[in-house]
Structures are given as C-alpha cells and as structure tokens.
Amino acid sequence: MDSFITEQPVVNRRYLFLTVFIAGMSTLAIEFTASRLLQTVYGTSNIVWANVIGLVLLSLTAGYFIGGRLADRYPLERYFYALVTLAGFCAIFFLLLTGAILRDAAAAMAVLNVGAITGSLLLVVLALIIPVTLLGCLSPFAIRLAVQDVNESGRISGRIYAISTLGSLLGTYLPVLVVIPLAGSRMTAVIFGAILLIVGLVGLWRSSNSRKVRIISLLLPICLAPALILWLRGNIKTDAGQLYETESAYNYIQVIRRDDCNYLLLNEGQAFHSFYCDGGRVPHVSVWSIMLAAPFFNEVPRPPEKMAVIGLAAGTIPKQFTQVFGPIPIDGIELDPAILDVGRRFFALNDPNINAITGDGRYELSRLTGPYDLITIDAYKVPYIPWHLTTREFFLDVRERLSEDGVVAINVGRVPDDRRLVDAISSTLMDVFPAVHAIDVPGTLNTIVVATMKPTTIGNLLANQAELTPDADPLLRDALATAAVNLASASSRGVVITDDRAPVELISDSIVVRYLLENGPSGLGLLDE
C-alpha cells in the first residue's frame, strides 16, 4: 500500500486546469440555480440568500477538508476524475430532485401548510449539500496532483485557485443573465451538471485502463434518464388557474386567472403585483387605487397632467389613473423586461399614453426631466422595498422632478403592531418635503405614504372629497372615501434613511421574523396586494 500511495505519475496539467475551471463555474452555477429554485417558494429575502450562501460555504468547507485527506491517501488522477464525475451526476440528480420537492412545497405554501414547507426545506438542504461538498473536494485534490515538486507548490496552488475563481466568475454571470432566462432553472441544472459530468468522464477514461471502471462510468448518464424524464416535465408550479409562467433574469413570473381577472405573481407568489379584469373593470379599491387620492391632499386639487410610476409591473397604477383622469402622459419604469412583456400579453398594457421604460427606478428617474404632478413608487420585492428608493438623496431627486404642487406617493409594508418601516420612510420624507401623510390600506399590510411639495393638511383631503362633482369617476369617489376613513399618523420618530445609512433590510427582516414568531404564518394572508 505504501508504494501505491507514493506513486507519482505524470499528470496532464492542461486537462486538470480545464477541469478546475469547469468545477469553479459549476459551483457558482449550482448556487444560483438552487437559489432560483428556492425563490419560487421561499422568496428572495436576505434570510433566504444568507441561508443559501451559508449552506454553500459550509459544504465547501467540508469538501476542502475531505478532499485534502482523500488526495493524500489516493493521489491518482482516476480517483480525482471519479469525484468530478460523481459531482456532475449529483449536480443534475439532486437539483432536479430539489425542483420536484419544491413543486410540492409550492402547493403547501399556497395553503400555508407549515409542516410540509419545513420538511421540504430540510430535504432541499440535504440535496444541496451533497453536490457542493463533492465540488469542494476538487481544488485540494487538484493541487495535490499538479504539484510534482515542493518548490513549485505556491505557484501551482495559486494558479489553480486563480483558474477556479475565473470559472466561478463565469458561473456567476452565465446562468443568471443567459441560461436561466432562456432555458429555465431546471434545464440550467442539467446543462451545467452535464458539462461537469462529461469533463469527469473524459478524464476518467483518459486516466483509467480498467474496463470495469469505464462501463460503470457509462451507466451514470443512463441512470439519470428517469430523473430527466420525470422531473423536467410540467410547469415549475401547478397553481389553479395558471395561464402562464416564465423565468427572467430577475424573477419567476406567474399569471393566474380567477373569475374574470388576471393576476401577476412573482417568485413565492404570496402577493400579487398587478391585476387586470376583462374590459378594464376594477372590482374593488386596492393599494393602487388609494394612490388616486394623493393629489387631493393639495388645498386646490387638480388632475395630474403628467406623472411617473416607479415599479410599473404590468401597469395597474397607470391604467387606473388613465381611467379616472384620461390619457395623461405617464412614464412607467420597470426593472424586468419580461414583466413588461407579460403586461402587454395578459394585462392590456398597450395604452398609447403609457411610456414603459426598462431599467432601475432610481437611475431611470435621474434621466427624466419632468416636471411631474405625481410620482408613485411601488417597487416591492416582497418583503423588501429596494433601499436605494427610500433614502433622503433619492427623495431629493424626486423633489427636483415634481411640479410646484407635485405629490409623491410610496407603498410601504407594515404589520399591525409594528410600523417601524413606515415611520422610517415618513421621517425621511419629512426631511425633504414640508408635509407627509399616511393612509393604511384596509385589509392589507400596506400603508401609502404621501408627501407634498406645498404645506398641506388632512383637512384638504376631507374637503376635496366632499366637493367631488356628481360626475366624478366612481373609482375616484371610492378611493377618496376609503382614504378618508383610513388616515393614519405620519410619525417623525423613525430613523432618517440616507445613502450612507440605510437599514431598510434590517428593519424588514426584524418585522417579518417578529411577526411570524408572535402570530405564525397564517397572519400573512394569501394573494393580497
């Protein structure tokens, strides 16, 4: 055994370096694919991301330790490429298994079956640990094989880590920006796992003359066939009334139909982000309808002549303003172009007065000149509002683009006994605007915070509601009536959010965790704004 262990055959370094590059690429591709699979059920909160990253790092740590010991005990290419082959096989098998588990978890999430959700999450954790741990074994093993002389150990190990990191760079951008949007998350798992599997098989055939080993290695792809047939079929989710689903670079997107209305759901699907009913019917006053009341906080209200919408989604806000105030020019900014495509196909987002702009809300607003009579901000990615759309500096940019009696309205989340995020945004707006008001949207966990360019009072809204003419649009009448009876205090007790200090995610995390611990998930509600 000792002579076997000390055997030092010549290693094909070029192919070894290629393998290390592919392994680095696959590691990050698996991480992003797993996170995309998880976000269809558990969302994209910082907690989910932290758990995925932490699990990957923990698995890599175990892999480095195990791989180093295996490399010292079995320093032969055929064992290294056997690990590569096994890692490729497990990447495909376990990521497809994860997708299948999460499909059942999505159904459990729809009815908030906590036991099923927790059980599926534990299975996903186990499924992710195995391929990532195997991938972690490869770098120390590759260094052991490539170093033939101790005097070159630093140079060789540095080169291997550099090549692996370069592969990781490609594995960061390629799946997120190209493969997942074009092929979907499940097929992405197959593509990157297959690349790793093929590289391992070729290396195994090159380094082993054993016929038995070659036959066994060929059986691995065959064993994957049932998993590919069973777990690649069907939709990612199978919700009742589902019309459409797709994956973009930013979101998992669903369109659900209930009665005569289409609803836009993103990622975990616990909130809808737009709706459209046949013929443009608005069945009830919603979060977006309440924003119609924003201009009526001015002493002398007038219909907005031009407005901007940050967080256009599928166009619910501008379509309701168009219904009430006519075809006023509206610039709508939406980060995800796939959502705009869905809006045109399923939500009648084709009004000629709506100018849809693709890009980040803050950046794109900085390129617009205005002046706008109203700017609405509804850019939630549950449970977060993007922090850079909540800072004093951002609201200064908003103010510069408002008319003399302009108004800004922002949708902010809360829970019944915790208004910290509402207070923080209210305090920040008070640092920029002379008057700030709040409206708690009934039946939801949302507050519309309104800030005005001129000093205004709640009495203005009540007086303007009373003076509505008989021919006012019924939706406007209902929106003002709802707003008038759900006014809340806009507190200045919160922290002022700045570009330098923006604890928005920390506040949101603590609100969600505290609420779940005190009330359980049943209090979060289903399919709400």
Describe the structure.
- By secondary structure, this protein is an alpha/beta fold.
- It has two domains: 2-231, Growth Hormone, Chain: A; 282-524, Rossmann fold (3-Layer(aba) Sandwich), CATH 3.40.50.
- The chain is 55% helix and 14% strand.
- An eight-stranded mixed beta sheet has the order 7-6-5-8-9-11-10-12, sandwiched between helices. Strands 1-2-3-4 form a four-stranded antiparallel beta sheet, sandwiched between helices.
- Strand 8 (372-377), helix 14 and strand 9 (402-413) form a beta-alpha-beta unit.
- Helix 2 runs parallel beside helix 4 (77-110), helix 2 (13-42) runs antiparallel to helix 6 and helix 2 (13-42) packs across helix 7.
- The protein is elongated and about 90 Å long.
- 47% of the residues are buried.
- The model is unreliable at 1-7 and 524-528 (pLDDT under 50).
Condensed summary:
This protein has 529 residues and is an alpha/beta fold. The chain contains 18 helices and twelve strands.
